[in-house]
Specification:
Elements lengths: L1 H7 L4 H25 L4 H18 L5 H26 L14 H10 L4 H24 E3 L5 E3 L1
Antiparallel strand pairs: 1-2
Length: about 150
């Protein structure tokens, strides 16, 4: 989808589209305020509505900040875990640093403490994950459910 947008839009189209959307929003705002002014005590209602619209526009972006903070913290946690995994690779406890993805935090803590691991746990979980992903890919690739609820092969 992103590649299609790159192919279909000329350079700097995002600025034009943004300005078009901003213009439409201002036009809708003015239409709403004009309708409010026609009501009894409309000047006061329009003034309050304009203040609320301004307030919402100014602070709407703040709703994304908690999510941004969480994602940043998770990235820091992941980097710390991967550094520990590198130490385990150097100690030849695991084969690849990504192998820690197949361990629970309690198992990882125990491996870090003892520097010992039954690698069959990781092998088993990798195989389970791969077979699950393959089943999902095959199912979605070769079958689809028609609107009538019938499953048809492609």
């Amino acid at each position: 989808m992103i590649l299609n947008n790159i192919k279909n839009f000329e350079p700097n189209a995002s600025n034009r589209i943004f300005e078009q959307g901003r213009h439409e929003a201002l036009k809708k705002e003015q239409e709403l305020l004009d309708r409010l002014e026609q009501l009894p005590d409309g000047k006061q209602k329009a003034k309050q509505t304009k203040q609320m619209i301004s307030l919402i526009r100014n602070f709407i972006g703040y709703r994304e900040y908690p999510k941004y903070g969480m994602i940043n913290r998770y990235f820091v946690y992941k980097q710390a875990l991967l550094k520990e995994a590198e130490q385990l690779v150097k100690a030849k406890v695991i084969h690849e640093k990504e192998d820690i993805y197949y361990l629970t935090l309690e198992e990882l803590r125990e491996v870090l403490r003892t520097k010992k691991l039954d690698y069959q746990i990781i092998s088993l979980r990798k195989n389970e994950y791969i077979s699950k992903v393959c089943r999902e890919i095959l199912w979605t690739r070769f079958y689809y459910i028609k609107k009538e609820g019938k499953v048809k092969s492609l």
